[in-house]
Amino acid sequence: MSKMKSLKWKLITMYLGLVLLVMIVSGTYILLSLKNIEISKSKQDLETYAEKINDQVIAKEEEKNFQSKLLGTMSNSIGIQGNILDAKGKTIASTADVQPPYEDYKSSVIVTAMAGISSFSTGKKNTDSFWLAKEWMSYATPVKDESDTVRYIIFTRLDATDMKNSLRQTTRIIIIAVMLALLLAAIMGFVFSQTLTGPILELTRGAKNLAEGSLNQKIKVRSDDEIGQLTASFNNMATKLKKNIADMSKEKNKLEIILHNMTDGVLSFDKDGKLMHVNTASMGMLEVDELNLTFSQFIKEFDINSGVYLDMSPELSQKINFPVGNRFINASFSPYSSETEKIAGVVVVLQDITEQKKLDDMRKEFVANVSHELRTPLTTIKSYTETLLDGALEDKEIAEEFLGIVNSEADRMAFLVRDLLQLSRFDSKQVQLDITEIPLNAFLEETVRQNKIHAEAKHQNLYYVPAKKDVILYGDRDRISQVINNIVTNAIKYSLAEAEIRISTGEDAYYYKIMVKDTGMGIQREDLPRIFERFYRVDKARSRAMGGTGLGLAIAKEIMESHRGRLTAESEYGKGTTMTMWFPKAQQEPWEGEIF
């Protein structure tokens, strides 16, 4: 156990933290109080100094004598500078200068005083008459005439350096006091925690020995407090545990069966149908947080075949599949017998076969889709061929029309077989990639030229936004062209007139991207995850009417994965779709084609 996980060190840490918090709060309060006292005192001094200037200089002398009178009667030996400014803020007398030119001050308190209001400011940095940077506390008050018009402004300021140094010294003293307090608290915390954790450590050693099989544990009770009560309870537990382990040996046969099947869901019912054992995997598969059912209730709750019953022959076991939510579970019912060879109950082993059933359903759906796709053109060819044989062949115009339809349907079957063979080659790893350099800008501009006529026929705007920095991709040019042409063709097909189809490129830290964005009809949220499945069509009737086999995106996905990339789709129904081809940057260097 690490020190930081030990209860002793947790207690010491908490104790030190509490002391530190108290010292910080109290020290902060003291510093703030001292600072406020010093500021209040300084403000009073500045106000008093300003009153003296008003009484002894402004009230008794003419403006031309302000400077001589100010220097003769006032002193800045206590660190206060006095200044008399006119109503516009220009200095006309100052204790900081013997004769003009006087320093012009820029301060918010002067601006406030010009508005007829006295103002005080703390901690403003400025320079003195020797151009040394200092921190000043400033005070400005207006002097008004009988018409309440500001005639002069008395501006006084006090060097705050001494006050700041005093506060810093006080801060250092408080920090030293905090360090001493923490040291004393650490010593006291260690002593306190030792008295508390000592018995706990002894209990821990006893529990460890108990877990290792030493059941004759007897720990001495040293006190009557909660720790002492815990020690007594531990001794009592050790005694009862020894007795219970002896009783548990009777359940050995049943526990061996349960433990043997722990990788799957396991439930055990006794001969009366009462649930004896259930593991976490079972509750996860059955999608319940708690399971308190009898055998009969279990059969009824999950609608399991009623041919399963408790008193089955010991030699028989039965397997049944049943749905739970979106899952499919295979349940194996195996009876077990007691020492007298009578049926003692049933062990039910559950296996999640959802993925297996999905694959099986996809296989069935694939076969059905292929059959349907082939049956339609075959039926058409058969019908038109019979019509021709029945006499329509004599009418040249009708014969040519029918033969054109037969040829079109034959092409449709040929396209379907071609796509199926291509997917089969990908599945069996028989595709050899011809890796070449592909300048991205030129490649995409060529794609736009190839498809421009189809877009213009529907009055659509198909264009490419060239990348600022041309990128060289390494891949099979024909197959990548097949992917992007499939995507662009789909965008043209499923977009109305005046739609916009935009091809652009981008990149992030790991991938180069080719994006095809259209403003077409879009794809609904529930259909989006399935568009790359084989033969899946969002709108089956309209998709067949527009042509295509329903395998284009499935092939495109396989091609992208063969380039170690991926193909993704984002769509908002009614607003458009964005298809993105992702090419990993780590692969964008010459490499030999592999068989996929």
Q: Would you identify the regions where 5 or more consecutive residues have pLDDT less than 50?
A: none
Fraction of residues in helices? 40-55%
The overall pLDDT, averaged over residues, is 76
Sheet-strand content, in percent, reads 15-25%
Shape by Cα distribution: flat
Number of helices: 14
**Oligomeric status of the shown chains?**
single chain
- Backbone structural class: alpha+beta
The strands making up the biggest β-sheet line up spatially as: 2-1-5-4-3
- What integer value in Å does the Rg equal? 46 Å
Number-wise, the strands total 17
User: How would you characterize the largest beta sheet?
Assistant: 5 strands, antiparallel
Give the CA-CA distance, first to last residue: 52 Å
